[in-house]
Amino acid sequence: MTEYGRGQGSEPWHPDDPLYGDGGWGGQQTQQGQQSPYGGQPQHYPQQPQAQQQYGDWGTGEQHGYGGQQYPQYDQQQQPQYDQQQYAPHQQQPQYDQNGWPTGSYPQDPYATGPTDPYAQQAGGTYGGGQADHYGTPDAYPPPEPPGRRRAEPEPETDWDPGPDQGEHAFFAGGGDDDTPGDSGDGPDGERDDRSGRGERRGRSGKEKKRRNGLACLVVVGVFGGGLAGVGYFGYQFYQDRFGSAPDFAGAGNGEQVTVVIPKGAGGYAIGQELKKMGVVKSVDAFVAAQAANPEGKTIQDGVYTLEKEMSAASAVELMLSPKSRDNLVIAEGKRNAAVYELIDKRLKVDEGTTAKVAETKWKTLGLPDWAVNHEDVKDPLEGFLYPSSYAVAKGQKPEDVLKQMVARATEKYEELDFEGKAESLGLEGPWELVTVASLVQAEGKTHDDFRKMSEVIYNRLKPTNTETNRKLQFDSTFNYLLGQSEIDISESEINSNPDPYNTYTNEGLPPGPIGNPGEEALQAALNPTSDGWMYFVATDGMHKTEFAKTIAEHEKLVEKFNASRDN
Q1: Angle at which helices 313-320 and 284-293 pack, to 10 degrees?
Q2: What does the alpha-carbon distance between residue 466 and residue 426 come to, in Å, rounded to a whole number?
Q3: CA distance 85 to 93
Q4: Residue pair 335/388 in contact by the 8 Å Cβ criterion
Q5: Those residues with Cβ within 8 angstroms of residue 153's Cβ, 6 or more apart along the chain or in another chain
Q6: Are 511 and 331 in contact (CB under 8 A)?
């Protein structure tokens, strides 16, 4: 029998192989002190580092090595010393014959409790009829072969699904009905060859792959199609916003009328917003464009308009420029407050007298200027401050809000005309009296051409030097205001028997306050009277024609003319 392990080239494996036996790794001596069978050349286990620390004889702690290279010996602090009984108390030490062959069973793996052994926690088993299994599973690691016969270890199995660089297309992978074993690497059972150690993962049927690929196609097409649709939609919206015409209705409306209130000072966009909110136009931009295209579009004023729903923007602009659409509350020049309160009640559809009650109880909170309060004997503090104009008043508003609008408009006008600064130059005590003069001009004048003459009559009669009427105005309008009437024929006995401060036949000077709401022309006339010496006037036709006189004689002739017209 040829002795193995004496430097004679490739030898068959035997149990004393230094890669496996008890003598240690890489030529470490056996327990009986024999030389490594590989001629002193160190052999390293492929998975162990070359500088692996080596253990000597278990139980002696001796150091061994090759070529004088010494391996560190663990002292008691670093590595405990094991004798044979400590290392394997239940295993007998193997016996060797003269040729170095073991005569008994293999002992336990010397690394079973080693400090660096990665398998220290695995239970030992048996291998090869009583020999110790070093790793607890007989088939896990067969006894290593000599270097010349060792085979490359197969790659471990994994559940990883190969990508495009492992034989499958990344997206539309093969394995369909058209695949063949020769083309795809499949085995005879339809599974891919296990050359890469992944045959089990690759063993899916062609139908499964085809189903998977088809679903992937649908998902991608859906996502791609949805993306295109989204891009197209937003692109269309961007184009419409930048270059397209604004959304608009067609025609002159659907026949359903609505009331739209346009606030004072509203511009094109604000008007368009109100119209869109009420359903009249489809978009604000369409209205603004139509307003700009109409030569009269910029003249649309605030107020209440009766329009129809779903009108084209151009139709809405055209109708708003027509008087037929205006539904404002219009306060005529010279109208008394009592009449204005009634109009507000009707427009707001509230009980009769509601607005008058608000004016009586809340007049101090409605915005009167400081110079318009605390005057004696005034019947209505708001008289003269409900400025004649057109107001946007509709059902649902509060009476006090409407009154505030009117007071604000009057106050703004009086400030614009500088009533405070000009009253004294006209011989008046303040702007309150100037408003009162303007209300008298408005009440007594029949036409705007009469206003400046009427203004001069008032100022002339208020003069202390007036010996014609002795500073008495003698106006029927003030007496009628007192009684809440508008009569022409008033008897002397009736006039002379009423001492009320508003009776200018019996009281000198101006009445306690305005007797109506003067308009623009009357205000201008009160500021700029004529200077012709007019002292008298008579409505010779009783209604529309007023004639003026400077002396009492001229006045008497005018009275005769009036009486003659009455007889006819």
Answers
A1: 60
A2: 16
A3: 9
A4: yes
A5: none
A6: no
Whole-number CA gyration radius for the chain: 60
Q: What is the pTM of this model?
A: 0.53
Q: How far apart are CA 319 and CA 22, in angstroms?
A: 113
Q: Are the C-beta atoms of residues 303 and 330 closer than 8 Å to each other?
A: no
| Of 270, 299, 301, 304, residue with least CA distance to 287 | 270
CA dihedral 346, 347, 353, 355 (to 10 degrees): -170
Sign of the C-alpha dihedral, residues 415, 419, 420, 422? Answer: positive
Query: Tokens for 534?
Result: 């007019």
Q: Which residues contact 295 (CB under 8 A, 6 or more apart)?
A: none
Reduced 3-state DSSP string for 208-277: HHHHHHHHHHHHHHHHHHHHHHHHHHHHHHHHHHHCCCCCCCCCECCCCEEEEEECCCCCHHHHHHHHHH
Could you give the 3-state DSSP secondary structure of residue 46? coil
Per-residue pLDDT of the chain (568 residues; tens, 9 = 90+): 444 434 444 444 444 444 444 444 434 443 444 444 444 444 444 444 444 444 444 444 444 444 444 444 444 444 444 444 444 444 455 555 566 655 555 555 444 444 444 444 444 444 444 445 545 455 545 555 555 555 555 555 544 444 444 444 444 444 444 444 444 444 444 444 444 444 444 444 555 555 556 666 666 666 666 666 666 666 656 655 555 678 999 999 998 988 888 888 899 999 999 999 999 999 999 999 999 999 999 999 888 888 999 999 999 999 999 888 887 888 999 999 999 999 999 999 999 999 999 999 999 999 999 999 999 999 999 999 999 998 888 888 899 999 999 999 999 999 999 999 999 999 999 999 999 999 999 999 988 889 999 999 999 999 999 999 999 999 999 999 999 998 877 888 889 899 999 999 999 999 999 999 999 999 999 999 999 999 999 988 767 789 999 999 999 999 998 888 776 5
